[in-house]
Amino acid sequence: MDYRYIAGYHRILKMIDSCYSMGPFDRSEEVITAMRDFILSYGRPLPHNHRQKTFPNGTLVIEDLQRSRDGGQYHCVAENNRSRTARRDVSLNIMAPPIVEPFSFASALSEGKRATVTCVVSSGDLPIRISWMKDGQPLPDDLRGSISTVNEFTSTLSFSSVSQIHNGNYTCIASNPVASRNHTATMIVKVPPKWRTEPSDKSVVMGQPVMFDCQANGYPDPVIRWKKSSEGSKTQFQVIISNENVQILENGSLIIKEASKEDSGHYMCQATNDVGSGLSTVVYLKVHGMYT
Questions:
Q1: How far apart are the C-alpha atoms of 148 and 202, rounded to whole Å?
Q2: How many C-beta atoms surround the C-beta of residue 34 within 10 A?
Q3: Cα separation, 257 vs 210, whole angstroms
Q4: What is the arrangement of strands in the sheet containing 210-212, beginning at the earlier edge strand?
Q5: What is the DSSP string of 77-106?
Q6: Is 233 helix (H, G, I), strand (E, B) or coil?
Q7: How far apart are alpha carbons 176 and 169 in whole angstroms?
Q8: CA–CA separation, 285 vs 240, rounded Å?
Q9: 196 Rama class: left (phi>0) / alpha (psi -120 to 50) / beta
């Protein structure tokens, strides 16, 4: 019988089935559980240090497994009340779990740049299998990532051109026959604002509502600000502060509930997120007089 365990872990080696139930005992013969020994392959009875404990029910406990001292062949010997004995050999194979070295993406990634990270398993017994995930799921095809196996303990994940869809948590998972370990790094790609809905000129009858839509994508999320030209100027703008009649909605839209002649003029929508110079566009609102 072969057992595999992780070096350095507390493990209980349950030899009950190996020792208690083994022949050549007949079912009519009573097995005396106290008459059992665990013997190392070189013939030294156990226990022989503080990490090893044996119990009458056929259990051997070894704490803090050490490959050089605990690995190897063990023999379980049982004797019944008729002085008949039986023996079973057990192989204890102690393996080291994978250790994944920390890695990280470049901190100044922007749209269109290349990105590469390397996952190195610095220790652990072979064979080692390395896989990658994004946000806890297999890598989506639309990311167009390239995975290169450098050797049996090193894997590289590369992207030739990153964008906002690449933002997220990337995990390298290393597994061998006894354990699985991982490390996660976050990719942040800064993307300048791009129009999702660019506002356009409007006209409205006095006293009627009017709304300008203004939305932009980017990372971090762009902040939308509205400004209105100063009277008689097309270059000087002042920030609009929401009031009972004029409101800036959470989605960036500007709404005027009851348009008046004073609301006529040029309006500027700005989208900024500290990436690049941002976006802005100027539109004109024409307010018509009411027909009588």
A1: 54
A2: 8
A3: 7
A4: 210-212, 254-256, 246-248
A5: EEEETTS-EEEEEEEEEEEPPPEEPP----
A6: coil
A7: 23
A8: 15
A9: alpha
65-121, pLDDT tens digit by residue?
A: 887 888 888 888 777 777 788 888 888 888 889 999 999 999 989 999 999 999 999
Give all strands of the β-sheet with 129-134 in edge-to-edge order. 137-138, 129-134, 168-176, 179-187
Please answer whether residues 101 and 122 qualify as being in contact, where contact means their C-beta atoms are separated by less than 8 angstroms: yes
- Tens of pLDDT, residues 102-111: 999 999 899 9
| Size (the chain), residues | 292
| DSSP for 126-168, written as a single string | SP-EEEEEETTEEPPGGG--EEEEEETTEEEEEESS--GGG-E
- CA dist., res. 268 & res. 31, Å (int): 93
DSSP state of 125: P
> Does residue 65 sit in helix, strand or coil?
coil
Give the residue among 287, 269, 125 at the shortest CA–CA distance from 202: 287
Backbone φ and ψ for 191, nearest 5 degrees, come out as -125, 125
Contact 197, 214 (CB under 8 A): yes
Please state whether the peptide bond connecting residue 220 to the residue before it is cis, i.e. omega within 30 degrees of 0. Answer: yes
| pLDDT recorded at residue 138 | 96
Strand, coil or helix: 237: strand
